[in-house]
Design a protein that fits this description.
376 residues, Aspartate Aminotransferase, domain 2, Aspartate Aminotransferase, domain 1, seven-stranded mixed beta sheet, two-stranded antiparallel sheet, 12 helices, 13 strands, binds pyridoxal-5'-phosphate
């Protein structure tokens, strides 16, 4: 097979062209309407997302990082309080913890699902622990049964980082719930490459708790319930009307986006299942996976060689993430000297994310998987 294909890691432009007739009129309406901030589309979107997630409150905000910061602010924690999270994630999951003067406590992950290891969470609990932030990495839910049990036993808050997993279900005591609606607060991002992406920055918090919702609404709006009457220190964090219009046009397609990702993942699984030098992603109990990323492990020091080989054959791939958070210079003050979280350290040297998006064709997947199988 010749490589005349133009394989991309993500294909946002291709998706836009496919859905243009839904998205363009929605954007034009905003631009022509003049209500660029807090226009009606923002309210419509939060209502629609509440229905989609089956959650009482969706509070839109400027981006996923702000959503996490607002969530932590809404819990009214004290400086020095500890927040436990996964060391294998994007910086944003824990950045706000440090920004607010709280103490990030980073723990190890499960080698198959790449998600936070409940036993490590239990071990990390101290008198000052106040919250846990499970990150549903690459589109798959963390072990929320165990996390909620630990939180309940120790009187802790749970903030779910659902930035990569919007739309995924979790079976909680036999009930199917959407990820992000299980803990006290869920946070997500509408960054263009996420499951539901806009054309710029966007984010949201979700909660079923009326008091927390009211606080969150104030926090993202300069701490004000009423304009020019400010009750607490807040942020200026809004979802633009234009982005809300894009999201309204795309929300109805979210389940189809996820199906497309799952179909691509199924082809990867089937074609790569017997490849001896790969470890395919594992699936947790009661969780479904939305494959925001399809991330394999390449043990034996072969990862960088495979990445180079794929690149030479016109196949992009990415390393999410090369360095665990406990090894990031910024978090050194919070980590014991030489502190080791061996699973995450191993994973960081082995992970490789393959092309994954809603527009991948069978022909492209066939080419990618054939090339991988020829690697030696
Ligand atoms: C993208 C992402 C965020 C942050 O979202 P932004 O909208 O980029 O601020 C937080 N956590 C995780 C796990 C993410 O992937």
């Amino acid at each position: 097979m010749s490589n005349t294909l133009n394989i991309q890691m993500v294909d946002l432009v291709g998706q836009y062209h496919r859905l243009k007739k839904d998205i363009e009129p929605a954007m034009e309406k905003v631009v022509g309407g003049g209500q660029y901030i807090n226009g009606p589309e923002v309210h419509v979107f939060s209502g629609e997302l509440e229905r989609y997630l089956d959650v009482k409150h969706v509070i839109p905000c400027g981006n996923g990082t702000d959503a996490l910061q607002a969530a932590l602010m809404a819990l009214d924690l004290q400086p020095g309080d500890e927040v436990i999270s996964s060391t294998f994630s994007f910086i944003a999951s824990v950045e706000a913890v440090a920004l607010l003067g709280l103490k990030p406590v980073l723990v190890d992950v499960d080698p198959a699902t790449y998600n936070i290891d409940p036993a490590s969470v239990r071990d990390a609990i101290s008198e000052r622990t106040k919250a846990i932030i499970p990150v549903h990495l690459f589109g798959q839910g963390s072990a929320m049964n165990d996390i909620m049990q630990i939180a309940w036993e120790n009187d802790l808050f749970v903030i779910e980082d659902a930035a990569q997993s919007l739309g995924a279900h979790f079976s909680m005591d036999g009930n199917k719930m959407k990820l992000g609606t299980i803990g006290h607060i869920g946070c997500t991002s509408f960054f263009p490459t996420k499951n539901l992406g806009c054309y710029g920055d966007g984010g949201a918090c979700f909660t079923n708790d009326d008091d927390i919702a009211e606080k969150l609404r104030m926090i993202v709006n300069h701490g004000a319930r009423k304009k020019y009457f400010n009750e607490r220190v807040g942020l200026n964090s809004r979802l633009d009307t234009l982005q809300a219009a894009v999201l309204n046009a795309k929300l109805g397609h979210l389940d189809d986006f996820i199906d497309r990702r799952r179909r691509a993942a199924a082809i990867y699984f089937e074609a790569l299942k017997d490849v001896p030098f790969l470890r395919l992603p594992g699936q947790g109990r009661g969780v479904d996976h939305t494959f925001n990323q399809f991330t394999v492990r390449v043990p034996g020091g072969q990862r960088d060689k495979l990445k180079k080989y794929l690149n030479e054959n016109g196949i992009p791939s990415m390393i999410y993430y090369p360095l665990p958070l406990h090894r990031q210079p910024v978090f050194a003050p919070y980590c014991r000297n030489g502190m080791s979280l061996p699973v995450a350290e191993m994973i960081c040297s082995e992970v490789l994310s393959l092309p994954m998006h809603t527009e991948l064709t069978e022909e492209e997947l066939l080419y990618i998987t054939q090339k991988i199988k020829q690697f030696s």
